[in-house]
Amino acid sequence: MTEYFVSYYDAESRTIKTGFVDARVFKDVRMNLAMEHEVGANNPITDEFARRFGGAALLWLATQYPELRQYLQVTDGKGGKITL
What is the pTM of this model? Predict the structure, then answer.
């Protein structure tokens, strides 16, 4: 069985939750996937990619849940704060 990693913000408990969902749930779902990263010997998953990926995920959550914006302390890798 294939599972997809998911992450979401639960506004009621004010927590970011992550886990796995059976891929069949998404069979007929239209998904707007805004970011991709080819993986291989010439395209490793580096610390910098992980930082950007995680930062992007948190910024996406904050676009849907504006109350998160005040808690974001994400930088551009050079110390400059990224804001929405």
Answer: 0.78
